[in-house]
Amino acid sequence: MTAAVGLRLDVPVAWQRAVVFMLCLLPLAWLVLRALTGALSANPIDDITDATGTWTLRLLLITLAMTPLRRLTGWKWPLRLRRMLGLFAFFYASLHLMTYLWFDQFFLWPEILADILERPFITLGMTAYALLLPLALTSNQASQRRLRRNWKRLHRLVYPIALLGVVHYYWLVKADVREPLLYGALWLGLMTLRLPASTNRMNRQGENKSL
Amino acid sequence: MPNRILPSEITPESVYRERRRLMQAGLAVFGAGLTGAWARLAEARVQFKGEISESRFSTDEERTPFEDVTTYNNFYEFGTGKGDPAENAHRLQTDPWSVTVEGECARPGTYALEDILKPHGLEERIYRLRCVEGWSMIIPWVGFPLGDLIRRFEPTGSAKYVEFQTLYDPEQMPGQRRRILDWPYVEGLRMDEAMHPLTILAVGLYGKVMPNQNGAPIRLVVPWKYGFKSIKSIVRMRFVEQQPVSSWMRAAPDEYGFYSNVNPNVDHPRWSQARERRIGEFLKRPTLMFNGYEDEVADLYRGMDLKKHF
Question: Looking at the complex, does the CB of residue B45 fall below 8 Å from at least one CB of chain A?
Fold first, then answer.
């Protein structure tokens, strides 16, 4: 929101980035604040796992929303901020993974391996992270230039990664599947917006608006 | 059988309904004989007056703080978040309360809570509680053996199982407005499990009357089974011949079996049950067979394939 207004007011790109950077750190700041003030539940490790996992998924979906937003509105800032949002998704995914490896399994590698092999939701989570890693590593402009057309193909992996994240979440809840289903619906919506029929219409709309 | 209910002790429905009406209207001054019991119960809302005896079944492990026991709960009737029950359970009206007893027994009927409690001395039972999600607590319950109550109802030879139901009232239990589970919540025990001396009905914890979020006014505690077996806010008990289908069995038959005994060797289909995090501790500890009550209860399952009867 702030960024949108900022663009309209011709706020420098660096400022837009700074604002979004701070916004993306807010969930972590909130988590740390709650941890330090004893405001987490009786099972704080679970709270940390929950929050970092949820924000990974949210940021992935927000990242996926940037291209349709650009098409729909003609604004330029969504594409400029996309990389940072994607990297923050990776940042929260890394915190999520570290929480699991450290506080859940205490780096007991045989148990971790057994988990990956035997627990489908962990298999999916690990797969998603393994796929996200090369995207984070090649997110810089040098890689973009070096990989040329392959860069785009590689980074389309983010679509299945987000879906893996949704199913990973769906498979770990006991009975209340409302939230994972909501994320699933959002993913589906964002995918639908990428179908040729939708993109053509959005492009026209975006062009009209930017005139 | 010292705890048998005499027919004269059973309060006819018309009588206690009227009593309640009087109470609610604030006209309790009438009929001192009737209101005495009520006054005692009301006092007991905070702290039990009578003596609470110790039990040889209690563990001497460090108790989970009261604060944690009463703010970290799974009680989906009040929401699926761990903090939801503590936030929403104030809506639950536990007084008056009655329990309907039906099925294969000689003394079916609807009993006011105080009539249920009257003949039973209260004990403190400090038990381990292991949640199917992989965390555990040590809770000092206040209650009495379920078996002592069941004997008063004189179950017949066809009573092979006892089924329990939680209150169904979406007004008081907002979580029931969504069909997260097939309400009302149902649980069940095999008769020998129900009669086992470890199995209690709890009416309090930490020496205080049961907080609503922990299953007030009366709940089951079966310490060698996963927490969800210990059904809360019970309004119905039914003696049946066929194995009951619990709410969790109905929701996910391949994940939750009827027995649901704590067993580190049989994993939940989606996660390991080998270890648990004791609330308040950082490192995980190994989960014990039958939650550490193997000596007391293993005989109940002699010869059974616990992988099949999970």
Answer: no
